[in-house]
Write the structure tokens for this entry.
Amino acid sequence: MAIVSPFRAVRPVAQFAAKVSAPPYDVVSLEEACDIAKDNPYSFLRVSRAELELSPEVNSYSPSVYERGAQNLQNLISNGILTREEQPVLGVYRQRWETHQQTGLVALASVDEYDRGIIKKHELTRPAKEADRVRIIHTHESQSGPVLLFFRRPETFNDWLEWVTSTPPDLHFIADDNVEHTVWIVRDEPAIRQVVESFLSIETMYIADGHHRSAAASRVRAARRNATVTPTNTNEEGFLAVIFPHDALRVLPYNRVVRDLNGLTPTQFIKKLSVHFELQLTLQPSNPPPAGFDMYIKNQWHRATPKHLENLSSGNGHDPIRSLAVSVLTELVLDPLLGIMDQRSDPRIDFVGGVRGVDQLTKMVDHGDWSVAFWLYPTTVDELMAVSDAELIMPPKSTWFEPKLRDGLFIHMLRDD
């Protein structure tokens, strides 16, 4: 079963919602964060990336950064920019971007179910990044970056969402990136009870985005259970999440650029590629074949279609990882031809989210800093579920979910005072 819980949400008052809300802390550089928050004293980046207010010499992991963020959060509350609900509530959060719309439930997911694998993961976490989230939860006494979860949609959930979204919203604005954000606060106790009970019939939920945040919530709960501080604080039993039906999400490719060709000339590299791929010239990437990719090298795009995709399977049949486009690229190109054996640590490779567009890839190569760019066929939600159900780990940087959930629209406080 899936346990979801209401919580006493801290959220912006309506007139400040657009100014408070901010991109997630980990999708903007410090320079971009400074630019976004420059003329906006209410930006939540002053909480999630508080180093932007400090001297450039201050390390991002310095205690002063976490303390400044905690103080900025308290200032937003004490100045009436953020308000806290009197009773536990649920939320409904809708995003509209271009022709895509997704609507999900804002609630606390269960740390216990995360620990037991009922909430399924698909990627590894990096120790430094996970430790950073642990420290920010401890110091801020809150969770502010929601984890993006999804589940296989039941029809009853559609009916509940339609009922909620037929009422006037509590928050509505269009952000600078032209994504429209609408929030409903569900305070009606029978309506809360209805959806909480309906989730009990759901067997599992999946993490789409937020592995470090959910892992950090688990570590914080474990640490506080072993301490004498607030041993009965039930606020630590859940972590902040926005939960979407699986077919509502949009996944973009997570593309790659490589700095050099490992001693090969472009002609030699293309010749070696042709052993495993059918190559044809194309004007620009649009929709690569499943498990394939488009490649930009020497001012020209090439479409690469695997010749023997059936070979990319385990001895016992279909392998949900080896047939992914990112795995095909790794197994047949990055490892053997370009000598990139560890994508997590090799400085010769970088990752570019699909939202950055084709122009970003061509610009990076044309400027001469990178030799080749790969535009991948995007991993699908069904493929992600297959990997998670098999208790396997996706290759690094396999999925880019868009639009991103905004920070600052919901905060879960770990203390009731």
Residues 103 and 162 are 10 Å apart (CA to CA).
